[in-house]
Structures are given as structure tokens and as C-alpha cells.
Amino acid sequence: MVDEQQSGFLVDDDILIPGCSEDDVYSLLDSIAHIINTDEARLVLIDLSGRLDCYRGNNYLLGNPIRDYNEACDFFSAIREEVQRRLIMLGGEGLKRLDAHNQLYPNNRLPFIVVFIGELSGLNLKRNNDFRTALINDDAAGVYFVICTNKTVKSLNLGADLNMFSVMDYESALALFEV
Known about the structure:
Elements: E1 15-17, H1 22-35, E2 41-46, H2 69-92, H3 98-104, E3 112-117, H4 129-137, E4 143-148, H5 153-156, E5 166-167, H6 170-177
Parallel strand pairs: 1-4, 1-5, 2-3, 3-4
């Protein structure tokens, strides 16, 4: 019997971490990278500042860190399509979550994808429909967003979009990802 109620992965929701310093971002990313098994998950880094380039070439990354706004928009479009593809596959199998698929089909496992955004500022995600669409059903498809920002929640002005995230402070997020 496959348990489809809770993910067997790091988190069960997308996470927004306001008030992060640059050091906080590195600590969170190092903690996540430390617990990722490359057979189980891949990490995507998005940071327009380029400060996460030091992670370039690591085997747990799905590709090089994304530093360009247009490249980030292209990625959000691609991840939206990947979420939809995975949901269609799961529906055809009569399943609701990726971890259930991976339990039933160990020879055809799909990796979880953790999208780590080092700084939300500058991405203008409120206008990016591909990003918002990917967030709606992403956890069932095994795609999780961990989003850091140095801003406060109120200053982000996300409105109702804030409900798509579990908002937690840096210490709580770090505790979640520590082994």
C-alpha cells in the first residue's frame, strides 16, 4: 500500500523565508544541498545577483545557477510544463503524488525538484503567470520552491498570492533542513 497523504521528501509545501541576509541564504542552501541525494532530488538555483555562482558544477544541481531574468522566466515556463506533464502521468496511473509513483515504480523514479530562489526581489513574480501556475499543484508533482528574500512579508505586497506559501523565519527554515 502506498501512502499518498504526505511527501517522503524535505517539505510538503512551498516555503517563503523573509528577512534573509546573504549569510542566511548560504546557510540554508548548504543545509539543503547537504541532505539532497542526487538519485532522489535535484536542485535549481535562481539568483539574479550571481552570488550563487559559487555552486556552479555541483552534481546535485539540475543545471547551472540561473542569473538572468529572461532565463528565469523561461525556466518558470518549463517547470510549469513539467508540473503539468507529471500531473498527467500521475493521473493516468491513478496516483496523486510523485512519491507514490516512485514507490510503485522504483525502476522509473523521477527526481524531486527543489527550486531555490536566493532573492525574490527583481523577479517580479506577481506578473509571471507561469510561476504562479507552477505553484498551484507543484508539490503533488514533486516540485518545491524555497524562496528567500531580504524584505519583510508586508513589503513584498503579494496579496492573496502569499497563501501559496508556508511563511517561516530563517531559524525555523534552517531547523527544517538540518540533519
